[in-house]
Amino acid sequence: MLSVKGVILLILLAVICQHPANGKNPLCSHANMEEILSKCHIFIKRPHFPVYIVSQNSPCCEAVRKVRDRDMRLVLILLSRETEERQAQYSEAKILRLRDLCVPPSPPHRHSPPPHRQVMV
């Protein structure tokens, strides 16, 4: 049975997470969820062990970054609409961790050239 907080969270996120047909840039679509579940399967599947570490440059993280703000709670909302058998294949905690693990890599730092020094004679 869902707790009151869980029900409120589900209602709130169901309102926030638009259906792909609504708007040009939905927060999270069913296609986004499917892509994440397929490309990240090894990282988010149950059982909890062994734990695999996802690379920021992996296809999994590329799929995660397609969801606005990498908000994986929206993926969980869409997954909650699937069968219980399918839901049981994935770890909610691991799905939520993808947000922090798939932060876009920072651009390489360029060292500025040394200051130009002129000598006045």
Automatic annotation (TrEMBL):
State what protein this is by name: Bifunctional inhibitor/plant lipid transfer protein/seed storage helical domain-containing protein
UniProt entry tagged with the keyword Signal? yes
Which keywords does this chain's UniProt record carry? Answer: Signal
Stretch forming the signal peptide: 1-23
Q: What is the lineage of its organism?
A: Eukaryota, Viridiplantae, Streptophyta, Embryophyta, Tracheophyta
Q: From which domain of life does this come?
A: Eukaryota
